[in-house]
Amino acid sequence: MDRLELIKRNVQEIVTEGELEELLNKKEAPRAYVGYEPSGKIHMGHVLTVNKLIDLQKAGFEITVLLADVHAYLNRKGTLEEVRKIADYNKRCFIALGLDKEKTNFVYGSDYQLGAEYMLNVLKLSRAVTLNRARRSMDEVGRAMDDPTVSQMVYPLMQAIDIAMLGVDIAVGGIDQRKIHMLARENLKNLGFETPICIHTPILLGLDGTKMASSKENFISVDDTEEEIYKKLKKAYCKIGDTEENPILALFRYHIFPRYETVVIERPEKFGGNITYMSYEEMENAFVAESVHPMDLKNSAAKYINEILDTVRKVLL
Ligand SMILES: N[C@@H](Cc1ccc(O)cc1)C(=O)O
């Protein structure tokens, strides 16, 4: 797979592709980052952007991971001390998932976001962005946005300034980050900074085919046990013929195929024996043609996900 193909695989949107191609021609080692609000449960949604960072690392990018403790604090997720502690745990998870420890630059928000230069930039940006726009940019990111706090209006401004101050060419994130990224793209130039390229990954559905939510426990997180994963996947939504909203197929597409050259679905002889797929598309076609059964996919998905998470479990012990 060539560099551009690797970067583009499994992404929902690149803003813009032309700018990306230009960047690749211009720079040998461009810089990209993802920011994460520290979270007690790192789930497969987080892992999807980690996978993209690993792709970018393979494509020669320099990677920064922002452990966004101040952002989590502004988003009313806990005290600064609490979120900072969770950030340490998250860092260990990300390394265990395959980000190269030597080559990844881990940064805590609180280590640089409280400086004078940073804050002055946030204040400058605050004059250029309307309250309405700041609020809308937080639609899919903010907690309890029916009654937002001022801190949640500062949040997107700081995220935009992060892009500038971390000196990255590319901001990576789920498609839920889109409105904040657009705000950054429109305003950073006027403050004398480069306009960032943005890469957006899709947002995974929960295992029951509805929106992921911690209250519903409808997702796999990296600290699930082997049995929990078999149990969760066994009852996951995987309707015959449905390829659009199929969380099991999504696991293969976004998590398993990127880490394995070929995927073997194990089946008893009497159901046709094992089948090997060389690509996600090949598996999806077989699923549509009903030549592979949801139950067989579920069992194999559990086996592969457990294999992937085994290294994480060992590191977290
Ligand atoms: N907004 C991101 C977190 C983040 C914070 C600051 C950034 O610079 C980047 C990302 C989230 O929803 O999790």
UniProtKB/TrEMBL annotation:
Any one GO CC term of the record: cytoplasm
GO biological process, one term: tyrosyl-tRNA aminoacylation
Enzyme class: ligase
Positions with a binding annotation for ATP: 214
Compartment(s): Cytoplasm
Database matches in Pfam families: tRNA-synt_1b
Keyword Lyase: no
Classification via HAMAP family: Tyr_tRNA_synth_type3
Role description: Catalyzes the attachment of tyrosine to tRNA(Tyr) in a two-step reaction: tyrosine is first activated by ATP to form Tyr-AMP and then transferred to the acceptor end of tRNA(Tyr).
This protein's name: Tyrosine--tRNA ligase
Species assigned in the record: Methanosarcina vacuolata Z-761
